[in-house]
Amino acid sequence: MGVKRILIVDDEMTLRLALQAGLEDHGCQVETAENIKQANAIIKDFLPHIMFLDIRLPDGNGLDLLEKIRESHPDIAVVMMTAYGDTRSAVRAIKSGAVDYINKPFELEEVQLLVEKTFKQMDLESEVELYRQAKKNQEVSFIGESKATLDFIRVLEQVAVAKDTTVLIRGETGTGKELAARYIHEASDRQDRPFLAINCGALPSNLIESELFGHEKGAFTGANQTKKGLFEWADGGTLFLDEIGELAPEMQVKLLRFLEERKFKRVGGFRDIVVDVRVIAATHRDLEQMVVEKAFRSDLYYRLNVVPITLPPLHQRGKDIVLLADYFLKQYCQQMGRKPLQLTDAVKDTLLRYTWPGNIRELKNIMERIAILQKERFVQIEDLPKELIRLDQKAISDSLTLEEPAGNAGQLADEVDARFSGQAVYLEEILEQIERTYILKALEQTRWNISQAAKLLGMSRYACQRRVDKYFPQK
Q1: Which helix (H) or strand (E) is 240 found in, with range?
Q2: Which of 380, 364, 381 is nearest to 329 (CA)?
Q3: Domains in the chain and their CATH numbers?
Q4: Which stretches does DSSP call E strand in 299-448?
Q5: At residue 73, what are phi and psi to the nearest 5 degrees?
Q6: For helices 450-457 and 386-399, what crossing angle results, to 10°?
Q7: Fewer Cβ atoms within 10 A, N terminus or C terminus of the chain?
Q8: Beta strands in 250-346, from DSSP E residues, in sequence order
């Protein structure tokens, strides 16, 4: 909190001035009022954090003013003052929302201690509210309507119900493994307890042991005080171990012991510490192959792999790619205070054809770049990163192996001449015949796989699907 503002409302001038001087020496900004009318006028502009309010004032009862303040300015902390030791009034004051009361006469030190305590309480409440808002703003959800997305969400919800079961999340880098772990946590009975995450590959083994299990004072050079580890801080909640495949062999042993016994010792400690923590691990590596190569303990692998969940790569999530792109673009535009941008159909088709080696993280970064650099409202293909356009064009070129279903250019020219020999030509019918022929050829070549046929034809899957429904409704 910056400047600490205090309002003193009392009809005794000597008390007002003495209290003002004492609190100003204590670093506070202080205003005074001798009655309710003056107090109301000052409150509008001054907006005090704390108000010292006398119960008996020349133009009314301070308790009545207290109730009005609680309605109009609930953030003001009101401390009631009385010279009469009226217990009933003090009880009414507390019930009406006063944070405390003080009997006259009082010592300045008593008031200063009360002010310090009240400001500390306000700071604590502010931090709690910020935490609640941050947690609300970080609401965990998945964007998507594809079967692949709905399938893994269903599994996450089923796993969340099993409160203590260890979970192993598999998936390529950037597919949202930590988000999936948070989703499980928020959907479980542990949602009101901590969710902590650590990347096992980001720290050396000697440091990660201290981070996970904590250490006792004097356990090693630089351990000047006892430190709790993440397992203790996460008690009752969830600990997410990302990139579990990077964990050193000696740490694998310690983690296995915890998973089996649910207890551990701090580094340099002798006492077992028991905690209630759910472990969710994640990796993009082939743990089965690592077990074969003796790089990962088989017993730890089986202990972690109780419920395996595999997140699909982005290119397998179909139309979700466009939904995610629109979502991220809208989000970044809002953060930057600019008007919403809109992706053209051509851009959407390009995004759908791209293979997305970096998965959701790559898509998110591209949308952020567009939100920063884009000048026009509509995003065109040329506005996409050059590397994305180049790879997309290469993919189209590599996939165009479709043979011409009908003759060569000379034969086509002869057919055109024949059609114009004394009869009307219906161009739309001719184009539909050509289109139908090519689409049928592509479908036969790909065994009626719509996605593959669309790639051969250089169109989006949805454009291809519409034409299939038009020309081959029986299929």
Answers
A1: strand 238-242
A2: 364
A3: 4-135 (3.40.50.2300), 147-312 (3.40.50.300), 316-399 (1.10.8.60), 409-471 (1.10.10.60)
A4: 307-310, 342-343, 378-379
A5: -135, 70
A6: 100
A7: C
A8: 263-264, 273-274, 278-283, 307-310, 342-343
d(CA 405, CA 445): 12
Question: DSSP string covering 162-231, please?
Answer: STT--EEEE--TTS-HHHHHHHHHHTSTTTTS-EEEEETTSS-HHHHHHHHH-B-TTSSTT--S-B--HH
Contact 237, 229 (CB under 8 A): no
**235 pairs with which residues across the strands?**
none
Instruction: Tell me how far the alpha carbon of residue 62 is from its chain's centroid.
Output: 46
Q: Which residues lie closer than 8 Å to 141 by C-beta, 6 or more apart? A: 183
Contact 458, 396 (CB under 8 A): yes
CA distances from 363 to 108, 325, 366, 443 (A): 61, 7, 5, 30
Distance between CA atoms of residues 236 and 230, nearest Å: 12
The C-alpha atoms of residue 358 and residue 461 are separated, in whole angstroms, by 22
Cα 298 → chain centroid = 33
* 182 token code pair: 């948070």
Question: DSSP string spanning 17-64?
Answer: HHHHHHHHHTTEEEEEESSHHHHHHHHHHH--SEEEEESEETTEEHHH
Report the distance separating Cα 274 and Cα 278, nearest Å.
13
Cα torsion through 13, 19, 22, 26, rounded to 10: -140
In whole angstroms, what is the distance from residue 42 CA to residue 9 CA? 10
Q: Provide the pLDDT for residue 48.
A: 92
Q: CB under 8 Å to 223, separation ≥6 — which residues? A: 215, 216, 217, 267, 268
pLDDT value of residue 3:
80
Three-state DSSP class for 303?
Answer: helix
In terms of pTM, does the model score above 0.85? no
Distance CA 216, CA 222 (A): 11
Query: How many C-beta atoms lie closer than 10 Å to residue 225's C-beta?
Result: 8
Give me the residues of the chain with pLDDT under 50, please: 137, 400, 406-407, 409
Tokens of 131: 């935490």
- CA–CA gap between residue 311 and residue 314 (Å, rounded): 9
| AA identity, residue 145 | E
Q: Is residue 367 exposed (0-12), middle (13-18) or buried (19+ Cβ within 10 Å)?
A: buried
Reply yes or no: is the peptide bond before residue 105 cis, omega within 30 of 0.
yes
Tell me the two tokens of residue 117.
């305590």
